[in-house]
Amino acid sequence: MNTERNIETKKAILEKIKEYETIVIARHERPDGDAIGSSHGLARILRISFPEKHIYVSDQDSSEYLAFLNTEEADPKGIGLENALAIVVDTAGLDRCANKEIGKARELIKIDHHIDVTPYGGISWIEDERSSVCEMIAAFQYTFRDILKLDTRAATLLYAGMVTDSGRFRYSETSGETLRLAGYLLDMGVDTQTLYANLYLEEFDFFKFQSHVFGKMKITENGVAYLYVDNAMQQQFHLSREQASSSVDFMNKIKGSLIWLAFIDNPDGSIRVRLRSRFITVDKLANNYGGGGHANASGATVHSLQEMQKLVDEADSLLKKYKTENEGWL
Ligand code: AMP
User: Fold this and answer.
1) Confidence band of 60 (pLDDT split at 50, 70, 90)
2) I need a labelling partner for 12 at 20 to 30 A (CA). Which of 42, 141, 152, 245 fits?
């Protein structure tokens, strides 16, 4: 495994960790597997490596889908951030951090794999070609394995984030290094049967929702697939926000549909957009709608059906251009 990549930055982060007695780890709001896995995986590594330190994870909100990982912790209010080192993982901009106070920490470190549009932190370790921050944390632990301990629990948390953020190791960011690090974690005794059952089995009702949505799915002239899960649908099928949002993945296997979009009604009246693609990139399209993210997986928000249509039309033009100018896509 390549331990030399960004070695000076990684060393600087380790030095800061050694220096501080109190460390608060924070991540983006509406956490996914990578946010939860990387924050709690890193916390676990630090706790078993430095039992004398106070390590907190900032869990202001939680994920029902990932509750089986049993990671809920008290909101570290009143810890006195002014004396703490904050490590913010998987969070492109501080405005997306679940802990809105985190900027008050004495020092701030950013560890992220999103494109670095809004830098922050005294030390910033960005590897946007990585499939997940969990992969970066695994690499961090491996680099300093003489100092940082790893156990089955930490490995399971990191592996869960790697599997979910890489779409089970299918997304284009999955590299040889991803698989080597995943193998390294698996060797720590991760119970994959239980993990995959928790991650991927669905209730019967969810399949009813799926069949309903398939009937409503649309496709533009040039192949942008999209669907809209409005409030009524969410109520009809008793969907959690996460279940409604997961509908974006229903569209990821359509030939010729290189961009697919899910629109999900938010409780506040706005509409969450989840953009996905293969071959072509969508992060710049997301930037036009107050969002961003990765080349092939981004998020944004629209505020009306007209704006939704505008985004669909823009995606369609983008795809038309791509298909005209490129070959070999599927
Ligand atoms: P989502 O579809 O919401 O899971 O978003 C896909 C990816 O884009 C995730 O890695 C998010 O962190 C990122 N993302 C979502 N919304 C935004 C945003 N408003 N700004 C920057 N990145 C975002």
Assistant:
1) confident
2) 152
Residue identifier of the C-alpha nearest atom 2 of ligand 1: 274
Whose alpha carbon is nearest atom 7 of ligand 1? Answer: 298
Distance 300 CA to ligand 1 centre (A): 7
Q: What's the longest Cα–Cα distance across the chain?
A: 61
CA distance 122 to 25: 15
Q: Which domains does the chain have, with CATH numbers?
A: 7-198 (3.90.1640.10), 207-325 (3.10.310.30)
Residue 114 CA to ligand 1 center (angstroms) comes to 9
> Closest ligand 1 atom to the C-alpha of 273?
2
Q: 141 CA to middle of ligand 1, Å?
A: 26
How does pLDDT run across 263-279, given as a tens digit for each residue? 999 999 999 999 999 99
| CA–CA dist 298, 92 (Å, integer) | 11
Closest CA to 127 of 106, 149, 144, 112: 112
Q: Dihedrals φ, ψ of 327, to 5°?
A: -125, 165
Q: Which helix (H) or strand (E) holds 309?
A: helix 305-325
Number of helical H runs and strand E runs in the chain: 11, 11
Q: 87 — phi, psi (to 5°)?
A: -120, 115
Ligand 1 site residues (CB inside 6 A) read 28, 92, 274, 291-294, 297-299
Residue nearest to atom 13 of ligand 1 (CA): 293
pTM: 0.85
